[in-house]
Amino acid sequence: MSITRLTVFCGSSPGADPAHLETATALGRELAERGIGLVYGGAHLGLMGALADAALDAGGDVIGVMTEALVDAEIAHTGLPELHVVPTMHERKALMADLGDGFCMLPGGYGTLDEFCEAVTWTQLGIHHKPCGVLDPTGYYAPLLELLDRATEQRFIRPEHRGLVLAAKTVPDLLDRLETWTPLPLAKWLDTTDR
After folding, report:
1. Where are the alpha helices (DSSP H) in the chain?
2. How far apart are alpha carbons 87 and 68 in whole angstroms?
3. 69-72 LR contacts (CB < 8 Å, sep 24+)
4. How far, in Å, CA of 61 to CA of 45, rounded?
5. Residue pLDDT, tens place only, 35-89
6. What global pTM score does this model have?
């Protein structure tokens, strides 16, 4: 699968562990070096800002997508070559999904989890056919990945559907996995027999 733009969901906070900022910076730089454009939430703060700045500093293409309310709150990155301003969060998520060929989640809070889980669900339902990955060198998302395994064991997630969420500890590994991901036919994703 060719990824020309990657949509990244992450926090507008730097988090407590400095490694989170390092990871965001490494991802932004690697995207630019590979010629993969970045689509993200448009903020200049926290992991979002570090990610965008690293991509821009390395000569990458960066697109931000933000709601009017967040622009009014003055958290928009003013150095972006392209910033889409939309009325609602629903429109923000839909546009970020449309602009990217795949999805990556870095550490974040409720908004990050919401955006990533919706992207995974849309892949499961065949609304789009795009890979979804978690970049997690520090183990921040280990409890979430364990929950997905538990949900699979309890037959709330089919084993094939569990494979929708890729995870890696390094930037190159995650990007390679996203680019080699192959979706199952839609009928297989929607099969509810033998749960």
Report:
1. 18-34, 46-57, 68-72, 89-99, 110-124, 142-153, 159-162, 171-180, 186-190
2. 6
3. 70/42, 70/43
4. 18
5. 999 999 999 999 999 999 999 999 999 999 999 999 988 899 999 999 999 999 9
6. 0.93
